[in-house]
Amino acid sequence: LQILGNVSEFQRVVSVLQEGLDFDIDVNASVFETNIRVVGGLLSAHLLSKKAGIEVEAGWPCSGPLLRMAEEAARKLLPAFQTPTGMPYGTVNLLHGVNPGETPVTCTAGIGTFIVEFATLSHLTGDPVFENVARKALKALWKNRSDIGLVGNHIDVITAKWVAQDAGIGAGVDSYFEYLVKGAILLQDEELMSMFLEYNKAIKNYTKFDDWYLWVQMYKGTVSMPVFQSLEAYWPGLQSLIGDVDNAMRTFLNYYTVWKQFGGLPEFYNIPQGYTVDKREGYPLRPELIESAMYLYRATRDPTLLELGRDAVESIEKISKVDCGFATIKDLRDHRLDNRMESFFLAETVKYLYLLFDPDNFIHNDGSAFDVVITPYGECVLNAGGYVFNTEAHPIDPAALHCCRKWKEEQWEVEDLMREFYSLKKTKKFTLKRASNHGEWESAKDPEDASSEKGGEKRNSRKTSHSLLSCPSQSFNSKLAVLGQVFLDNT
């Protein structure tokens, strides 16, 4: 967020990246971490580069140096997905692909956390391979859920046998659920949202106890670990995205009491004992509780959420600040420090705090202002808000996914139909179902109606001769509405 105000520094970073990034190196890399940090970071920077004042190349956002780097990085991860199940290995060698001795055991989050970045990449580049492998991995996890609707912690990607059978919402599973919701919002995809809602029922039935979420055996539903993990604190924010605000607030307040008790969230907290778990007393300045506070504050304006933000700022300043940064808390019981600062502190924790206290930030745009850009495929609306954060807090503009249509045949057919409807001066709504096999949903009103809905554009409202569907509007179907409620039907 700071770099957006410093164009020369942004340009320097881009030039350094162009000269220095080399993905053809003999090194093993985490498929999950490379995706959320490198691919997600490059895609987000690519989409924000024009807003940052960078002179973008012709064809942006469908082309650009950062987009090409994101695609190159993602292609290095594709060999990991070449398994009988479609679920990826956890590690890949950037030069040689998957090592022969690589373990086939991967955590659930490491399998289900690709659809946001990979679908964005497919829509911007026109290559469906990325979205396809991400979807296949998601469906494989769904297929292998237990009879009571739960997934475990680690699975063998070759045999699809669950190795760790603890089911919960925390470490090893968390971002899988997050990406079902965010993928559904980003792609207007009913199937992904339906998957999550089914999981949500099972989670409430078997893991929820008095607004806490425990760990249970995935086949029996019996409690295996009565603990709260700090990574679980993303859950209230996720609940707010599906409109379950009341439950979200109750769970958030439980987590907030733990924060007040220690001045931070310990990695593990024993719920029955009301205290930290041995050897899990640390607090590496994780963002999840602050992330939930930001989402919930946008939904409710409850001042309690600002109090958490104030507490977080004061606590971090008081117990964590050192001469060269902000140190991990090694033990919350006595606030001893460790000699490290995690990258997610700057990437996420500080960013979510900033957004919590900056109500006028462009990220919070409600669609009343936007930019119109010209792409090789027609006019396109960008920066209208509705940003989807990947799990490393890199914002993706969902409107950008409609800017780079490489699948033109369907669009031409629809344009012919629209011209025919226009010539007949129809007054009824014309609704188009799925426009391609890439999860895109769109609808178009009668052209006369559409011409009157140009309020807020940063251009003249006079009629133009551009294609009526060059920048399709998203259907109301599955859109966010009041308090983040997602609608799955046409009501």
TrEMBL record:
<dbReference type="GO" id="GO:1904380">
    <property type="term" value="P:endoplasmic reticulum mannose trimming"/>
</dbReference>
<protein>
    <recommendedName>
        <fullName>alpha-1,2-Mannosidase</fullName>
        <ecNumber>3.2.1.-</ecNumber>
    </recommendedName>
</protein>
<keyword id="KW-0326">Glycosidase</keyword>
<feature type="active site" description="Proton donor">
    <location>
        <position position="267"/>
    </location>
</feature>
<keyword id="KW-0378">Hydrolase</keyword>
<comment type="function">
    <text>Involved in the endoplasmic reticulum-associated degradation (ERAD) pathway that targets misfolded glycoproteins for degradation in an N-glycan-dependent manner. May initiate ERAD by promoting the first mannose trimming step of ERAD substrates, from Man9GlcNAc2 to Man8GlcNAc2. Seems to recognize and bind to exposed hydrophobic regions in target proteins.</text>
</comment>
<dbReference type="InterPro" id="IPR036026">
    <property type="entry name" value="Seven-hairpin_glycosidases"/>
</dbReference>
<dbReference type="GO" id="GO:0006986">
    <property type="term" value="P:response to unfolded protein"/>
</dbReference>
<feature type="binding site">
    <location>
        <position position="391"/>
    </location>
    <ligand>
        <name>Ca(2+)</name>
    </ligand>
</feature>
<feature type="region of interest" description="Disordered">
    <location>
        <begin position="441"/>
        <end position="472"/>
    </location>
</feature>
<dbReference type="InterPro" id="IPR044674">
    <property type="entry name" value="EDEM1/2/3"/>
</dbReference>
<keyword id="KW-0106">Calcium</keyword>
<keyword id="KW-0834">Unfolded protein response</keyword>
<feature type="active site">
    <location>
        <position position="288"/>
    </location>
</feature>
<dbReference type="InterPro" id="IPR001382">
    <property type="entry name" value="Glyco_hydro_47"/>
</dbReference>
<dbReference type="GO" id="GO:0005975">
    <property type="term" value="P:carbohydrate metabolic process"/>
</dbReference>
<keyword id="KW-0256">Endoplasmic reticulum</keyword>
<dbReference type="GO" id="GO:0016020">
    <property type="term" value="C:membrane"/>
</dbReference>
<keyword id="KW-0325">Glycoprotein</keyword>
<dbReference type="GO" id="GO:0005509">
    <property type="term" value="F:calcium ion binding"/>
</dbReference>
<dbReference type="GO" id="GO:0004571">
    <property type="term" value="F:mannosyl-oligosaccharide 1,2-alpha-mannosidase activity"/>
</dbReference>
<comment type="similarity">
    <text>Belongs to the glycosyl hydrolase 47 family.</text>
</comment>
<feature type="compositionally biased region" description="Basic and acidic residues">
    <location>
        <begin position="441"/>
        <end position="459"/>
    </location>
</feature>
<dbReference type="GO" id="GO:0044322">
    <property type="term" value="C:endoplasmic reticulum quality control compartment"/>
</dbReference>
<dbReference type="GO" id="GO:1904154">
    <property type="term" value="P:positive regulation of retrograde protein transport, ER to cytosol"/>
</dbReference>
<feature type="active site">
    <location>
        <position position="174"/>
    </location>
</feature>
<feature type="active site" description="Proton donor">
    <location>
        <position position="33"/>
    </location>
</feature>
<keyword id="KW-0479">Metal-binding</keyword>
<dbReference type="Pfam" id="PF01532">
    <property type="entry name" value="Glyco_hydro_47"/>
</dbReference>
<dbReference type="InterPro" id="IPR012341">
    <property type="entry name" value="6hp_glycosidase-like_sf"/>
</dbReference>
